[in-house]
Write a structure and sequence with these properties.
With 142 residues, this protein is an alpha+beta fold. The protein has a domain of 83 residues: Sandwich (Immunoglobulin-like), CATH 2.60.40. It is built from three helices and seven strands. The protein has a four-stranded antiparallel β-sheet with strand order 1-2-7-6, with no helix packed on it. A three-stranded antiparallel β-sheet has the order 3-4-5, with no helix packed on it. A hairpin with a 3-residue loop joins strand 1 and strand 2. The longest helix has 15 residues. It is elongated and about 80 Å long. Belongs to the small heat shock protein (HSP20) family. Pfam families: HSP20. This is Hsp20 family protein.
């Protein structure tokens, strides 16, 4: 088992161009900036309600926090490694602990009748709409 080499390290050793290590050094920090902000989230206006879906594969219900605060819907994920995985002896591991928060402002979101469901790695949040209140008062000039 000690002679096993992860494929990416083996492939790097076979490269002939001497500046690959320099290229990899400069590409690595930028690669993390090119990824999404943790998870993908879609917001759909479905007439009487908003339907917000978030792709959260491998995340359980207790690792997700959904809250609506003054029209801002926030979905937070805090994925931690379980005690079962801490005791294993991995030769190569690509899963990790991570946390992310995504939010969207829904100006006419109602606080009553909210529902959320996690199924197949997809979180679906239904946010009913309320009649929009006018926050602007027109003042006549004399």
């Amino acid at each position: 088992m000690a002679s096993m080499i992860p494929y990416d390290r083996y492939a790097r050793g076979l490269r002939t161009w001497p500046f690959d290590a320099i290229d990899n050094f400069f590409d690595a920090p930028l690669a993390s900036l090119a990824t999404d902000a943790g998870f993908k989230m879609n917001v759909e206006d479905a007439g009487e309600k908003y339907v917000v879906t978030a792709e959260l594969p491998g995340v359980t219900r207790d690792q997700i926090d959904v809250e609506l605060n003054e029209g801002r819907l926030s979905v937070s994920v805090d994925k931690k490694e379980s005690d079962e995985e801490k005791g294993k002896n991995y030769l190569h591991k690509e899963s990790c602990e991570w946390s992310a928060t995504r939010g969207v402002y829904l100006k006419d979101a109602a606080t009553a009748g909210l529902s959320a469901k996690l199924e197949g790695g997809i979180l679906t949040v239904n946010v009913p709409k309320q009649d929009e209140k006018a926050n602007v008062t027109k003042i006549s000039i004399d």
